[in-house]
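Fold Annotation — chain and its backbone

Fields — amino acid sequence, structure tokens

___
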Amino acid sequence: MSGQKTTLIVRLILEKEDSILLLKKTAKNGGGYSLVGGKVENGETATKALIRESLEEANIKIKRKHLRLLHIYKREFERELILLYSAKKWEGKIESRELNKFKKVEWIKRTELPGDISGVTHHLLNAHFNKLYFSEEFINWTK
């Protein structure tokens, strides 16, 4: 449909050894696990949004030069474009800073991902693990 805007969303993958950093949502926010990140606000660049969200949600301080774009995911149904980044360097004591949204932040082994991970987070992690750089909703890339 014409006239509908696409929302730009940023997400961050932080890896430490064989673990990924995930946020555990509160029950009122669905209770599952997700990646750090959020919506890009008007007048904000994607990297500035991710730097802001990382600090707000998990007390992670990242410099733009340490961010690397990993994957772009186009979700047609939700009218979203998700940019997945990684960072190799960051500062701060990792902790949940938005306790009304996230109960905790934790390192989880790649091989032991929880069952209650969000569908989008699961998709983004699989794309990253399989080194896919672009995907679209409703397309099976394994065919």
